[in-house]
Amino acid sequence: MDNLVRTLIDNPAQTADTSARDKLDRQRLQLDFTQEGYNRLLQVKELADARSNAEVVRNALRVYEWFLRQKKDNYRLQLVRDDRVRDVELVL
To answer: Is 3 helix (H, G, I), strand (E, B) or coil?
Structure first.
C-alpha cells in the first residue's frame, strides 16, 4: 500500500495537524474561487468535518496526488458495493 494512503487511513489527524517546526516552513497561498467553487469548498468542508478551508485544500491535494500517481502506474479506479463493481474514469 502506498505510504500516503497508509498515512491517510491509519492516522488522518496526523495529515491535518502540523508540528511547530512545520509552521515555520509554511508558504501562504491565496486562491480565488467563483461563488460556485467557494460553495463547493464549504460543502466539502462540512462533509469532511474539517476545521478550516486550508485543511480541505491540503487533504484534497493529497488525494489528487495519490490519484495521479496511481493513474501513472496504470491502475484503474473502481466503485464497489456488495458484489457490484463499476469502473470509473475521471477526466481531469
So the answer is: helix
For residues 26 and 3, give the distance between their C-alpha atoms in angstroms, rounded to a whole number.
Answer: 22
Rounded CA-CA distance 69/1 in Å is: 12
Q: How far apart are CA 6 and CA 26, in angstroms?
A: 24
86 phi and psi, to 5 degrees? -125, 125
| Assessment of whether the complete model's pTM goes beyond 0.70 | no
Q: pLDDT digits over 24-44, tens only?
A: 788 999 999 999 999 999 999
| Residue ranges per structural domain of the chain | 3-10+32-88
* Cell of residue 42, nine digits: 464549504
Our measurement of the distance from residue 27's CA atom to the centroid of its chain's CA atoms, rounded to an integer in Å, reads 19
pLDDT at 12 over 90: no
Greater model confidence, 30 or 21: 30
CA atoms of 48 and 16, how far apart (whole Å): 12
